[in-house]
Every structure is written in C-alpha cells, then in structure tokens.
DNA sequence: TAGTGGTCTAGACCACCGA
DNA sequence: CGGTGGTCTAGACCACTAC
C-alpha cells in the first residue's frame, strides 16, 4: 500500500528541469552537514557572514537557506546570540511529535515503561513500513505510556537494527528521539500518522487494564530522517476517555 | 496563526517598548484588505512594484509580506503570472481541511447529504465553542458525508446566525467553506481539531447504518477566521473501517 | 516581447545579547 | 562594547507566462 505523504491533489508535475537556485544548493550542503552530524545538536553554527565567505555566496543567500532550515525545525535562530542546531530533547520538541493531550488540564510530560525489547526478523508489516529486505533485522520494543500518571497508551516500536547498533541492549529513556539523535546520529525530520478508531481485542484490553471491546484510537506512525528514509514504525493504541489527539489545520 | 499574535503594540510609527517591522505593518494592511474582501478570491493583486509604490516601501519589503501571506495560505503566487487571493473551493483547498483518506486508493471528492437545517438558540456547547451570548442564534446543520460513494461521516455543524444572514434558507453546497467566503465574506484561516475514539450509541449507529457499539472516530473542530474569531463548530462521527485520518507532523 | 514573480548581491542600519 | 541575527533598500539579472 503506497503511503501518500500529503494531499492527493499535490500530484502536479514538476518542471523536470535541472535548475537549482543557489540558496537551495546551500540548503542542501548545510543539510548534509547536519545529517553527517558535523554540527552537534545544541551547537552554534558559524555566523551568516562566515558561512557566506566560506561558501562563496552573499550573506543574503546564506540567510535564505538558514531560514528554510529553521522553518523545517532543524535549526533555531536567536537574535543577538546565533544559529543553533535544534535539540530534540527539550519539552517543546517532545510535544512536536506527541499530540495527545488531557481534555481538561495542561499536559505534563508523558512517562513510559518498557515491557519487552527484542532483536528479531521483521514481520511483513515491518518489512513494508521500514522498506527492509527479508534478511534484515529489527529491534522491536513494546511499552506502556502514562500521562499525568494514568495508563493511556500501549505501543509497539520497530526500527532497523542496522541503523541502531547495540540498541537492543540499551537502557531506554522516555524520549526516544533524542536518543536516536545523540547515540545513533539519526534525526527524525517528519512523521506521518494514520489514525483509526478500533475496538480493543482481548490482548490489547489486558495490556491497557480495561475491558474487551472498548473503543480506542490506533495511531500508525512512520517516522523518516533527514534523507527521507523510514527509520521507525510505531503502532500506538490509545485510550481517549480522558485524552484527545490534537491536530491544528492551517 | 503565528502572524496574528497578541502583540499589544499598535501600528503607530515608533513606540519605544514594542517594535513592529515595516513588512509586518504591510502584512497587516494587506490582511485587512483581504478580510474586508477588497480583493475577491481568485482575483489578481497588483504587482509587487505597484504595491511598493502605493505603500511607500521597497519592493523587497512588499515581497516579504506577500511571502508571509502565502505561507499562511491566504495568497497564491505564480511566477510569470501574478499574485492571487487563494480560492478555497478548488480540490486542493478542500483537502486542506479534510484529512480522511481511503486506506487503499487515492481520495475522490467527498459528497454530502443534508438531513436537517435549523435556526435556533444555541445549546451550552455551541455557546462555549462559538463564544456566544445566550441571546444569540445559531444555524445548525446535520448532514451525512460519503467518500467514494460510501457512507462514512455523520456531522453536526453550527455557526453564529448573525455572521451568516439567510444561511438557513440556502441551498447547501458540498464545499461549505467556499460558500462562507463568497456569500458571507468569511475566510476560514485555521481549524483546531480534537480527536477521540468513541462507541456509537443507538442514534449515531442508526444514522450511519451500522450497529450500536461500533468504534468510531469523533472529530471536534473549531474553525476560526482571519481575525481569529471562532466562526464554526463541527462535530463529526466517522467510520474508519476503510478510512483513516492522516496527520503529517513536521 | 512585455510583465510577472524568483533569485542574488552589496551595503546600511536596527534590535538584541552577553561580557 | 563587539558580535549576532533581523530589517530595509536599490538594483541587476533570471525563469516563467501570456499574448
């Protein structure tokens, strides 16, 4: 099943011509450095002027590339201080990919408890969603998550083992994506989520300490890195009696 | 919307506590014209150069304001042709606010059938979500929606009657938001959706021609206009056996 | 060919931050 | 204070569209 990243109406043909604006080339060069972890998360980049000299373009062109990277949440710019590689382990960034909120109060940080963690051969879903060969291995995590102390999510997380060496024997922190970035040099750029309403089967109900047939929200997420490779597949089952999934359309 | 924040400073030249960039003032001026429907949807704006002369700023400053309006989906710019007021009745814009997709195929246009349409006093939810006084009136629509010919949504739509004079006696098209724009001068800028999984009660099940207790997706949407006023509340009950709600996180 | 938006440059000045 | 990003300008040239 082909997964459409965006509206089906955006299938309009591209010019096909090999014209690439200068600022776009600068964007790609800087993106490559970020992907190669030349600059670490939190680190300050050279100033606009220095980059301009180094790359042999005007400061305005560098600026346009930096602004684009900032719009893509890869950089953070602060007037008077400098340009920094975005850190994905602060509170703000956690909620970038976590859209569940309590109905009434503001959300505290979600917490987690790992149930199982194994390195194994991928099943059919994992092969398809992570674009894997049959001979590849995956690391698969099952865990429960809590919001404001209340059990609300059971999820299965699968990643290609080759991209995460030693992952299966690690202590798993609450914020996975910062671990991906700091330990494996993998930055999650975007994630595509597909939501459905389901009735819990017996196993799911037991995990979530509720009764079979309860309505729950299923979130099927594929996360991709800076080079648009799928690097994580996550299937979350969420109880939404006291929570909701928040989506802002603009 | 990021650009219509709660900046307390006014457009008055230079105040010492708040600083308002020139391009931001231009943005606001142009936004006002869009809100006042000085330029109609689909219409071409004057060129950058003409606007620059008229407003007494440089072309680059106009450009920055136009780019910001384009980023907010209010304008569409086409190289070699001009800058146009975004039309919200073409296929692209429909899917901007409609995130349900068939699991397997690409989505055709959704269709609708109105069940009831009344003008009445608001209930407590409507008063709260639309920020209404007890004496106000609302227009309330119940309808069913179909995707690829299949019944999948039952929804209730409520709008303040004062903003939509004569609405209750109109023929209702499939794409409501284009009607809002063309007949009432109201442009939907953003919408906030809250999703939950629910079990259908008897009435909902009957409407959707399925059985009581079926799991379904409830979408609670508040849509706001260019001035950030809530102008529509919509509660949709969606069957997701063959559909999913698509959400792209970046 | 004329007119549009898109890119690129160079330089001036402003607002903000930290030492 | 010096250094950073943010704004603003003026002008040149490029790519695209319509006629």
From TrEMBL, chains A, B:
Domain spans labelled HTH gntR-type: 20-88
Sorted UniProt keywords: DNA-binding, Transcription, Transcription regulation
PROSITE patterns the UniProt entry points to: HTH_GNTR (PS50949)
Alphabetized GO MF terms: DNA binding; DNA-binding transcription factor activity
UniProt-listed InterPro entries: Bact_HTH_transcr_reg, Chorismate_lyase_/UTRA_dom_sf, Tscrpt_reg_HTH_GntR, UTRA, WH-like_DNA-bd_sf, WH_DNA-bd_sf
GO annotation terms (biological process): negative regulation of DNA-templated transcription
Entry annotated with the keyword Zinc: no
Pfam families linked to this entry: GntR (PF00392), UTRA (PF07702)
KW Transcription (keyword) present: yes
This protein's name: GntR family transcriptional regulator
Organism: Methylobacterium brachythecii
């Amino acid at each position: 099943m082909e997964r459409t990243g965006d509206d089906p109406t955006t299938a309009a043909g591209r010019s096909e011509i090999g014209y690439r604006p200068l600022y776009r080339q600068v964007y790609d060069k800087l993106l490559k450095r970020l992907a190669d972890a030349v600059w670490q998360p939190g680190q300050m980049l050279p100033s606009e002027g220095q980059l301009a000299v180094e790359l042999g373009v005007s400061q305005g062109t560098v600026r346009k590339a930096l602004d684009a990277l900032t719009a893509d949440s890869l950089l953070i710019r602060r007037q008077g201080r400098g340009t920094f590689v975005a850190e994905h382990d602060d509170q703000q960034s956690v909620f970038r990919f976590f859209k569940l909120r309590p109905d009434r109060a503001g959300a505290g940080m979600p917490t987690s408890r790992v149930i199982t963690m194994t390195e194994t051969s991928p099943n059919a879903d994992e092969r398809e969603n992570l674009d894997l060969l049959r001979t590849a291995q995956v690391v698969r995590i099952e865990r429960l998550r809590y919001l404001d102390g209340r059990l609300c999510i059971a999820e299965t997380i699968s990643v290609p083992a080759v991209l995460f060496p030693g992952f299966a024997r690690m202590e798993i922190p609450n914020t996975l994506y910062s671990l991906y970035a700091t330990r494996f040099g993998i930055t999650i750029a975007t994630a595509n989520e597909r939501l459905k309403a389901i009735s819990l089967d017996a196993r799911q109900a037991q995990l979530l300490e509720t009764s079979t047939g309860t309505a729950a929200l299923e979130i099927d997420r594929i996360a991709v890195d800076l080079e648009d490779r799928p690097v994580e597949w996550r299937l979350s089952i969420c109880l939404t009696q006291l929570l909701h999934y928040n989506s802002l359309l603009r």
